[in-house]
Design brief:
2 helices, 5 strands, alpha+beta
């Protein structure tokens, strides 16, 4: 089935996101890093909180410009 990823986008970075043609590549690199390290991965415009297999359900608490998996 694949994997799902939780990403917090910082709304105050919208101009950076809109004007940076490499932003998608940056997001992809952050997702790949998070998948390997299992740690929140910060990038310009947000944070990748976690990735998990699509067969699972994960609860995430979001606040303070980041997120946390609730166990």
């Amino acid at each position: 089935m694949g994997f799902n990823t939780t990403v917090v986008i910082h709304n105050d970075a919208f101009s950076e996101i809109e004007n940076n043609p490499q932003w998608g590549s940056t997001l992809l690199a952050a997702i790949q890093s998070n998948h390997r390290t299992k740690q929140p991965t910060y990038f310009n415009g947000g944070v990748v909180v976690e990735s998990h297999h699509a067969d699972m359900e994960v609860t995430v608490k979001v606040g303070h410009n980041t997120g946390e998996v609730i166990k």
